[in-house]
């Protein structure tokens, strides 16, 4: 069982995937909330049946999978529906995240959660690790990666916690304003620190 839970977060395109991969390469268990969220609504899962009952069978595509775009359109145009969906999925995601973190075999576990702060999950972590990036770089990187307009990215950023709010809750910060190669030395340092902390943070 992991003795230390590190919540890794950051805004869209801040570099969470790049940093997660570096922790994984060190043999650290990384639990990805986005992957969990997708697995929870896979065909045959009870949450998918609840969503179908609520929104109708047109929310399921011909392959029996959730039509994410259609669901997103529905919940963005109706705040009550968004609340309903959040109330269904958030407790399930939280439970599964913590279950997997507790089952992880590495000395510490990294829980990669894009909306860690927005959804109040930071209080369940031993450390909060924020990937910080200059907003101009963030915008440019997402536009290039996703081939979307700056306006679309700005809209997403506006729905996320502010850079200041994230940094205010950070125990550790990785600066991703430089080259990709500048991430590994920062992860190396944190890895040593987390191994030490895990030794003294023995959970019951
Ligand atoms: P999301 O929130 O959308 O899941 P993310 O936080 O996981 O994104 P990444 O996918 O790791 O972010 O990075 C966003 C994009 O920016 C990717 O295309 C990545 O290759 C690129 N990128 C990340 N860091 C750097 C860097 N230091 N220099 C250049 N490109 C970078």
What does the model show?
By secondary structure, the chain is of the alpha/beta class. The chain has one domain: Rossmann fold (3-Layer(aba) Sandwich). 53% of the residues lie in helices and 11% in strands. It is built from nine helices and five strands; from the N terminus they run βαβααααββαααβα. A five-stranded parallel sheet has the order 2-3-1-4-5, with helices on both faces. α2 crosses α5. The protein is globular, with a radius of gyration of 18 Å. The N and C termini lie close together (10 Å). The relative contact order is 0.22. The mean pLDDT is 95. Bound molecules: adenosine-5'-triphosphate.
What are the salient characteristics of this protein?
alpha/beta; Rossmann fold; binds adenosine-5'-triphosphate; 5-stranded parallel beta sheet; 204 residues
């Amino acid at each position: 069982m992991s003795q230390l839970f590190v919540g890794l977060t950051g805004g869209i395109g801040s570099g969470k995937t790049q940093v997660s991969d570096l922790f994984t390469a060190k043999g650290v268990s990384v639990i990805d909330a986005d992957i969990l969220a997708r697995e929870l609504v896979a065909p045959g899962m009870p949450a998918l049946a609840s969503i179908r009952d609520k929104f109708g069978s047109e929310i399921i595509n011909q392959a029996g999978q959730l039509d994410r775009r259609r669901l997103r359109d529905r919940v963005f145009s109706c705040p009550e529906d968004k609340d309903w969906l959040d109330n269904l999925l958030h407790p399930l995601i939280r439970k599964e995240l913590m279950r997997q973190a507790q089952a992880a075999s590495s000395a510490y576990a990294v829980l990669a959660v894009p909306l860690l702060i927005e959804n109040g999950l930071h209080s369940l972590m031993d450390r909060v690790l924020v990937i910080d990036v200059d907003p101009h770089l963030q915008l440019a990187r997402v536009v290039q990666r996703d081939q979307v307009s700056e306006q679309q990215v700005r809209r997403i950023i506006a729905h996320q916690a502010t850079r200041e709010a994230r940094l205010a809750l950070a125990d550790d910060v990785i600066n991703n304003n430089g080259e990709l190669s500048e991430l590994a030395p920062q992860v190396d340092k944190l890895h040593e620190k987390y191994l030490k902390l895990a030794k003294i943070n023995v959970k019951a």
